[in-house]
Model the fold of this input.
Amino acid sequence: MRWVAVGDRVSEVLGRAVSEGRVALLEPEAHRVCELYGIPVAGFKLAETVEAAVTAAEALGFPVVLKVVSPDILHKSDVGGVVVDLKSPHEVRTAYEAIVNNVAKHTPGARVRGVLVQQMASPSLEVVIGMTKDPTFGPALMFGLGGVFVEVLRDVAFRIAPITEADAWEMVREIRAFEVLQGVRGQAPSDIGALVDILLKVSRLVVEHGEIDQLDLNPIFVYAEGAVVVDARILLTGGP
Ligand code: ADP
Ligand code: MG
Done:
């Protein structure tokens, strides 16, 4: 068997999107790209029918999360496209129907490729890692805590990729809410090493694949040991 380099396999996924005229990867594609770079993602399968969703859930193990997969939808929860904590085949069937109906109502005409069936990660502190292209400096990596910390307080750290391990530790330490990661109100400290590891892998990914224009891992759940990405969005440079 021919050994195929990780970079080639990522290029294959990106190339398929381009050949279909898409600038946004579908969520399972984005998770696959992360997985190929060793970034921990929640176990997932793409299901194209309700029965396939049940089979996927049984293989992944309950509880699971269902999410719409559509090239026309980037913010899935805004259109009722995410249902979490499904504990049985019956709940999976009901959620599948609900997602299809919600999407038809909120985004008529959206092309639905199926649903992503994903292992439910235990809720924990949420962080965000992103990348946007700075016109002058190139790929700018971003780190912050999820929700209001990023969206309202803009409490984020930036570095231009490629970054070193020391840069990654600095990024995590320099946000104002760093204390939250160290554990407040009796909570165990978060595994900052796991976040540093993801930052370094994202840095490598975007440097090695310049056609990635934007990347958003939001959220990543971080635990006392380890971290897991539950939502990944990757946009490619448009044009020829
Ligand atoms: P959106 O496209 O709306 O950003 P997400 O995939 O981020 O959709 O899902 C919305 C929210 O649902 C997440 O912010 C997270 O709180 C929760 N969620 C999503 N996937 C999982 C999962 N696998 N395990 C636990 N919670 C999840
Ligand atoms: Mg999200």
